[in-house]
Amino acid sequence: MSEVHAVRRGLLRDRCAAAGSAAALVSRPANVRYLAGGAPPGAVLLLGPGEDVLLCPRAPTGEPAHGRPDEALRIDLLPVADGDPVVAAAGLAASAGADSLAVEEHDLTVARHRAMGKAAPRLRLADLGFTVEQQRIVKDEEEIGCLRIAAEITDQALGELLESILVGRTERHLALELERRLVDHGADGPAFATSVATGPNSGQGRHRPSDRRVEEGDFLSVRLGASYHGYRCEIGRTFVIGTAPAEWQIELYDLVFAAQRAGREALAPGAAYRDVDRAARHLLESAGHGEGLQPRTGHGVGLEIEEDPQLAPTAMGKLDACVPVTVEPGVHLPGRGGVRIDDTLVVRPEADGGPELLTMTTKELLAL
Fold first, then answer.
1. For strand 23-26 and strand 44-47, is the pairing parallel, antiparallel, or unpaired?
2. Are 66 and 40 in contact (CB under 8 A)?
């Protein structure tokens, strides 16, 4: 992967040079990992004007959660552990002869930005913006391979839970068990905080597991994902507990499933982000569920669980091939519960079979 990371850094360096910056400082952890192979806690990456340098408050440990830095990179440890690596990077860039430094202003506090100016007063600080995030949108096949393994781990963990006794157990207990199973199957850890929602809580987009116990007849909504070598996937499924589903549950499930299928089928290179959202949203709005819908139908995934692109009504842009995204419509009926169905897919051209589904757990409405 050293060559891959070097190529990524070269592309960024060229873009900075074209914008008039002799050097760039990358501080957002996911961006550091993307360009350097690893992002030890607190580390920042300085590109140019001479060699590229990873500045770390402490020596990298190589833990899977942080990745392993590219061996071709120079690694500088700060002389004091509580020093600020962005300030040290500014001084290093100035001493190497740079007259300008592009920084990720969206990641830096005002205080850190000012401290850099004081440390290198003759260094002009420019905004790098979201250049690295945009570079990360299209994944190479090695990145997609990590996402595929993350999805396999997630499917395994969820499948095992579905084979166990669920009635009487709390949302919080089930969420903790799912996260343990993710690690047992080889994940670095959960990709995000696992959500388990039962009964009137089901179908909510951001439900935090509570001490509510699973009861017969409940909808059970589960949303989880594994992180593997830093790459994160997402799956969401809804089931019925202990009995045949009621008529209203079947109707609501069928509606959300149709919306999710429409969103998945809209994924193609060249498709507008907003059109993918509209394909799913239109069905739910037409059925009278326009109020309370989530602000977007899906989003990109990778080294972060929520990346660009955003599949939302006002999103600008079009999909490229090899972009992994989620499609995750849901409907929540206050006081009754609801349905969420969520998959991670990779955009592929029709000639290659269309969207590649990574999360394979059945979307059939099972009675557990």
1. antiparallel
2. yes
Spatial CA neighbour of 271 closest among 358, 354, 329: 354
Cα–Cα distance for residue pair 51/32, rounded to 1 Å: 16
Nearest CA-CA partner of 256 in 203, 201, 199, 193: 203
Rounded Cα distance, 50 and 226, in Å: 38
Question: Are the CB atoms for 221 and 238 separated by under 8 Å?
Answer: yes
Backbone angles phi, psi at 345, to 5 degrees: -135, 160
Contact 342, 191 (CB under 8 A): no
Residue 140 DSSP code:
P
Separation CA 279–CA 283 (nearest Å): 7
Q: What is the reported pTM?
A: 0.94
Q: Is 352 left (phi over 0), alpha (psi -120 to 50) or beta?
A: alpha
Tokens 């059925």 found at: 287
The angle formed by the CA atoms of residues 27, 230 and 69, to the nearest 5 degrees, is 60
Task: Identify the helix (H) or strand (E) that includes residue 33.
Answer: helix 29-36
The length of the chain in residues reads 368
Can you give the pLDDT at residue 66? 86
- CA–CA separation, 30 vs 188, rounded Å? 15
The position carrying tokens 């909808």 is 219
Dist CA 129 CA 147 (whole Å): 26
Strand partners, 343: 327
Task: Say if residues 87 and 112 touch (Cβ distance below 8 Å).
Answer: yes
Judging by beta carbons within 10 Å of its beta carbon (0-12, 13-18, 19+), is residue 34 exposed, middle or buried? buried
Contact between residue 166 and residue 178 where contact means Cβ atoms under 8 Å apart: no
% of residues, the chain, pLDDT over 70: 99
pLDDT tier at 334 (50, 70, 90 boundaries)? very high
- pLDDT of 294 reads 92
81 pLDDT above the threshold of 90 = no
| Residue 83: HSE in the Cβ half-sphere, 13 Å Cα cutoff | 21
- Give the tens place of pLDDT for each residue, 197-221: 999 999 998 899 999 999 999 999 9
Q: Is 98 within 8 Å of 123 (Cβ atoms)? A: yes
- For position 112, what pLDDT does the model report? 94
pLDDT at 1: 58
User: How deeply is 310 buried, as exposed, middle or buried, from its count of CB atoms within 10 A (0-12, 13-18, 19+)?
Assistant: buried
